């Protein structure tokens, strides 16, 4: 695998590393070392730590890829010296003085928020919210998303740790035009603010599952830059 950048993935809410399962085998076959950070959504600090110890484990240079809240994680952890490029997939990308929640509050709320409930201090996605989260997937895949997703602590988006990697690292951004979880206007704003190479796709919130070929091409482009 010498000479090929490593790829590290960071998942978002109601997800785990398996949400990148349509990307990982192809990237491995193309010669990349690939890992998905498995974080528990217990705190922003601990989730960033999980991404960092994954970055410590793989050789650089690294393309660091974040989906949704995973964008907040790669924004913080991407300051790691092995990270050479960032790829955001329908993702949050707060500035140094913003929390994830403060970034979201600048844009109209999305329909998925009508389908959440708090239990045991965790923020659960109801099955009625699948259409707004991953509605362009077959029903069986939607059910798998719900069954395998990690559930965040309710105040996760109000937490803060330092780091704004997109200010110093080259970035790519995939905007999901049909997103009903993260506002597409937020996605376009974030991409523009960071000066990312931006790609639009007519997708729900999970383009890595509904349009994996598009996402693979963007990751390949980022890897070629290193």
Provide a descriptive summary of the structure in words.
The structure is a single chain. By secondary structure, the chain is an alpha/beta fold. The chain has helices spanning 24-29, 44-57, 70-77, 100-104, 130-134, 139-148, 184-194, 207-210, 212-224; strands at 6-10, 34-37, 62-67, 83-89, 116-119, 122-125, 171-176, 197-201. It has a single domain (6-224), classed as Rossmann fold (3-Layer(aba) Sandwich), CATH 3.40.50. The chain has nine helices and eight strands. Helix 2 (44-57) packs across helix 3 (70-77). The model has no long low-confidence stretch (mean pLDDT 97).
Structural class: alpha/beta
Helix content: 25-40%
SS summary, helix count? 9
Spatial arrangement of strands, main beta sheet: 2-1-3-4-7-8
CATH homology-level superfamily:
Alpha/Beta hydrolase fold, catalytic domain
Q: What is the mean predicted local confidence, pLDDT? A: 97
What proportion of the residues form beta strands (DSSP E)?
15-25%
CATH architecture: 3-Layer(aba) Sandwich
Backbone CA Rg: 16 Å
**Major sheet, described briefly?**
6 strands, parallel
Instruction: Kindly give the count of domains.
Output: 1
Distance between the termini: 15 Å
Number of strands: 8
Shape call: globular
Question: Which helices and strands appear, and what pairs or packs with what?
Answer:
Elements: E1 6-10, H1 24-29, E2 34-37, H2 44-57, E3 62-67, H3 70-77, E4 83-89, H4 100-104, E5 116-119, E6 122-125, H5 130-134, H6 139-148, E7 171-176, H7 184-194, E8 197-201, H8 207-210, H9 212-224
Helix pairs in contact: 2-3
């Amino acid at each position: 695998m010498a000479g090929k950048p490593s790829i590290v993935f960071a998942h978002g809410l109601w997800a785990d590393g398996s949400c990148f399962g349509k990307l990982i085998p192809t990237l491995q076959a193309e010669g990349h070392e690939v890992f998905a950070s498995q974080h528990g959504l217990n705190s922003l600090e601990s989730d960033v730590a999980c991404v960092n110890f994954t970055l410590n484990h793989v050789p650089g240079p690294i393309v660091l890829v974040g989906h949704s809240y995973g964008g907040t994680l790669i924004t913080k952890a991407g300051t790691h010296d092995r990270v050479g490029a960032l790829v955001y997939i329908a993702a949050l990308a707060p500035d140094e003085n913003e929390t994830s929640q403060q970034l979201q509050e600048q844009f109209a709320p999305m329909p998925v928020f009508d389908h959440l409930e708090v239990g045991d201090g965790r923020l659960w996605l109801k099955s009625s919210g699948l259409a707004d989260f991953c509605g362009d997937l077959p029903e069986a895949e939607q059910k798998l998303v719900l069954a395998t997703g990690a559930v965040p602590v309710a105040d996760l988006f109000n937490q803060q740790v330092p780091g704004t990697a997109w200010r110093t690292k080259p970035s790519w951004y995939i905007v999901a035009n049909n997103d009903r979880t993260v506002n597409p206007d937020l996605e376009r704003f974030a991409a523009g603010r960071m000066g990312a190479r931006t790609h639009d796709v007519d997708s729900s919130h999970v383009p890595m599952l509904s349009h994996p070929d598009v996402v693979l091409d963007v990751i390949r482009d980022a890897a070629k830059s290193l």
